Amino acid sequence: MRTREAGEVFGPRMALFADVLSVGLATAAACLPLVTAPAALSTACVVLRGAGQDRPVTSGRYFALLRRRLRAGDLLAGGVALAGLLLFAADLALAGAGLPGAPLFAVAAAVIGASAAVVGLRACGRPESLTDWRAAVRGAARDAVADVGGSGLVLLAVATAALCAWMLLPLAFLAPGPLALALTAVDVRRSAAVLVQ
Fold it and tell me: Transmembrane stretches, by residue range (predicted)?
């Protein structure tokens, strides 16, 4: 990180925070069609990863990368994520209908849903998601099992984003930025741990 220059009111960390929020707004806008959500979140992670490599973290760079990558594979990943979310909601609705064994079914559905969410979100944080979703999902599944602490951090980041959005609805439009930063940090943390070993 560079030091504060003469006359600069805020330091580089505050500039990064502002960049994260602008990328979060851009990501929230790009997620509105729903099937673009994985590609939008993945692009946000790539843009934020660039901050450590002295590349600009701007919404302009974000939209330029997103325009280049919206292809059939990205839309298919969004369709799979949306179908999984709808299936999870239907399972929870069935569990709430009072069927026999509903409490156990609800717990099993929650565990499976949380595991799928962790793998999907970790896949968005991986650089391979830009070009190959299958490789990103395979790597994310390996990381989710091998790095349980990182998976816990991903769940904590999602819970924090959901809580912020629940407490104050306008924060829902800023939440994707910090969430993407958390996903990127978890992936960078895992990559650094693998290099040390």
Answer: 20-51, 72-90, 102-123, 144-169
